Amino acid sequence: MKIKANKAFGQHWLRDKTALFDVLTAAEITKNDTVLEVGPGLGTLTEILSESAKEVIAVEADTKLVGPLRVQFFQKPNVTFVEADILKFDLTTLPSQYKVAANIPYYLTSNLIRTLLEASNPPQVMALLIQKEVAERITAKPGQMSVLAFSVQYYAAAQIIRVVGKELFDPPPKVESAIIQIIRRPQPAFEADNEKLFKLVKAGFGEKRKMLRNSLAGGLQLETNQVEGLLKESGLSATARAQELSLDDWHRLYSSSLALQVL
Questions:
Q1: What is the DSSP string of 128-172?
Q2: N or C, fewer C-beta in 10 Å, the chain?
């Protein structure tokens, strides 16, 4: 398909067959699987998915691509193209345990991952080609944590499969990319009221690199002595910073917040 990439949709066509097959492998697709592809673009990944999966549902927001894609794949009855914004797509129309494989626009990454993980019908596995820097943020360890890292790791196990150089795209993006695999946990890392939990986490990260006693005081509108008591109750240092906390630390902080009724 001879179509120029649209900058408004953040389109960069991946040309490298090895990288495309690495996305397929990372998604752990079998002949029994339904796969959701986000932004099929020119259909290069779609072609590979169609040979490996039971069914491919490809959601494309660019109107100019949908018609040519349907023509290109008219002899592939297991491929369906849906013209839609993926953030508004009804995921309940997909069978449970579906998988996601996609080369997604960088601007969409955080919202899409959060939407998929928090959906009432979430995917079992995601294999996404995203900006390398974002992949590194998602898979960060305590010391480099962020709201994004916590949001993903609370629901899933994530790992970087490989780096994909910018020269393998047309047109080349300005930065390197990476294939990330995200496997959803059967249950979140710990039981919590999501609204209260993420209120706490966002407050903790609200003032970047400040000590928790300051960021929580400002974000939750608490007195400093209240926050110091909360940190002590959680077994955390008074000088702790949000990026240093593990999921277990957040669990204790959340439980103490409920016990002290500050959420």
A1: EEEEHHHHHHHTPPTTS--HHHHHHHHHEEEEEEEEE-GGGEESP
A2: N
CA distance 29 to 31: 7
Contact by Cβ (8 Å): 1, 41: no
Neighbours of 76 (CB within 10 A): 15
Give 230: exposed, middle or buried? Use CB within 10 Å, 0-12, 13-18, 19+.
buried
Shared fold status for 7-184 and 194-259: no
Distance, in Å, from the CA atom of 81 to the CA atom of 69, rounded to the nearest integer, reads 8
- Among 11, 22, 15, 5, smallest CA distance to 163 is for 22
User: Does the reported pTM lie above 0.90?
Assistant: yes
Q: Using one digit for the tens of pLDDT, what is the confidence trace for 170-210?
A: 776 788 999 999 999 999 999 999 999 999 999 999 987 78
What dotted CATH number matches 194-259?
1.10.8.100
Query: What is the pLDDT of the chain when averaged over all its residues?
Result: 92
End-to-end CA distance of the chain: 54
Q: Which CATH topology does 7-184 take?
A: Rossmann fold (3.40.50)
Domain ranges within the chain, ordered by starting residue? 7-184, 194-259
3-state secondary structure of 86: helix
